[in-house]
Specification:
This protein has 297 residues and is α+β, with helices and mostly antiparallel strands. It is 38% helix and 13% strand. The relative contact order is 0.07.
């Protein structure tokens, strides 16, 4: 049986080995480990490229801490920038869509003058008869778009004298583009040439072979040289206060402002004036606010 060594002698070799390892570790210069797909997390940590390295550097170097803290927000701001770019592009797309809606082209005006002897004759079976001051051959049928009180585009018809057809078509186009509303644009024949019925329906009409109310003289409508525009909103008001059509009495007060009403020197009056037509609202005494004519009568 071997004699046992003293306890100090038994512990000395391991202590010497640990001391040598400690000295070697302090004096040795760390060699950067390999990087790439085959590098271990520990090696990346020693090189400062992994989370272990960042933690170690942060614990031992103030500059590294600052750098690490700077890189982290940069990553965050990068994410924010990415999302911001996406949000920005989304906003641009949204605003672009809104711009597309806001700048949507206005409806295009369509208007034409229908020629041909039978084109008018077949449409004025109630408003024309033998003995009228003009014949169907001297009249023209206009087909035109108009904006209604319902904010929609409608197709209407109007008969006027051939000498004024093109100019009246230009007037209708101006009213359409300006957004002036017309409730109805039908031939008076739709009401069997009854002017009272046409006015009561707030129908805009032109040619009608009839006499001036209470007179034996031909109306300017009988020549195709007059148009009554939105008659319910622009009634005829006599000097004595009679209103025609009667349902237009609320609009006899011309200080009122309502859709379809005509006022002095407004866009409607100017559009007709440019065509050489005059407004009955300028008459002295009795005033015909619905009436426009090429003669001023």
């Amino acid at each position: 049986m071997k004699p046992s060594l003293p306890r100090l002698q038994r512990c000395l070799p391991p202590l010497l080995i640990l001391a040598c390892l400690a000295v070697a570790g302090c004096s040795a210069t760390p060699t950067p480990g390999p990087t790439g797909a085959g590098s271990s997390p520990e090696a990346n940590g020693a090189a400062g490229t992994g989370p272990g390295g960042a933690a170690t550097a942060a614990a031992s170097d103030g500059t590294a801490v600052k750098s690490a803290s700077t890189r982290q927000p940069q990553a965050g701001s990068g994410a924010r920038a990415g999302s911001g770019a996406r949000a920005g592009s989304g906003a641009r797309a949204g605003s672009g869509a809104q711009a597309a809606v806001g700048t949507q082209a206005a409806p295009r005006f369509r208007g034409s003058v229908v020629t041909g002897r039978d084109a008018v004759r077949n449409r004025v079976r109630w408003s024309w008869r033998r003995g009228c001051p003009v014949g169907p051959v001297e009249l023209r049928l206009l087909m035109a778009d108009y904006g209604g009180f319902d904010k929609r585009v409608h197709r209407g018809e109007l008969v006027v004298h051939r000498d004024h057809a093109r100019r009246v078509l230009v007037v209708l186009e101006k009213l359409f583009k300006a957004g002036y509303p017309i409730e109805r644009l039908k031939l008076v024949d739709a009401y069997r040439a009854d002017d009272d019925r046409s006015m009561a329906a707030n129908n805009t009409s032109g040619f009608n072979c009839r006499r001036v109310s209470g007179s034996s003289s031909w109306s300017e409508h009988a020549f195709g040289r007059a148009i009554d525009l939105n008659p319910l909103r622009n009634p005829y008001v006599t000097r004595g206060g009679r209103v025609s059509p009667p349902a237009g009495r609320p609009y006899a007060n011309r200080a009122r402002r309502a859709a379809g009403m005509i006022h002095a020197n407004d866009l409607v009056v100017r559009a007709f004036a440019a065509a050489g037509w005059r407004w009955g609202g300028y008459w002295s005494g009795s005033r015909d606010y619905q009436h426009f004519s090429s003669t001023g009568r």
